């Protein structure tokens, strides 16, 4: 049972890390392109400015 819980936790950690890396790459690329916050929001599917800002800070 413990091994199953540890495996799920590890898989969850890996997924979170992949998401963090992907967002970091996204913000670097859009910075190179000269995108503003509205353009980045549209590319990400329309999240709020607050969510966009918070994700940019984490990346």
Structure description:
The chain has helices at 2-33, 37-43, 49-58. By secondary structure, it is mainly α. The chain has one domain (2-58). The longest helix has 32 residues, at 2-33. It is elongated.
Quick description:
Helix content is 83%, strand content 0%. It is mainly alpha-helical and 59 residues long.
Spatial separation of the terminal alpha carbons: 34 Å
Q: Averaging pLDDT over every residue, what do you get? A: 83
Structural category is mainly alpha
Give the helix level as a range of percent.
over 70%
Strand content: under 5%
Low-confidence runs of at least 5 consecutive residues: none
Helix and strand string, N-terminal first? HHH
In this structure, how is the largest beta sheet organized? Answer: none
Number of strands: 0
Integer-rounded radius of gyration: 15 Å
SSE order and pairing:
Elements: H1 2-33, H2 37-43, H3 49-58
Salient structural properties:
83% helix, mainly alpha, 59 residues
């Amino acid at each position: 049972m413990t091994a199953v819980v540890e495996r799920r936790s590890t898989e969850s950690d890996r997924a979170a890390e992949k998401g963090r890396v992907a967002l970091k790459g996204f913000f670097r690329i859009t910075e190179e392109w000269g995108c503003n916050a509205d353009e980045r929001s549209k590319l990400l599917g329309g999240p709020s400015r607050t969510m966009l800002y918070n994700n940019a800070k984490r990346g």
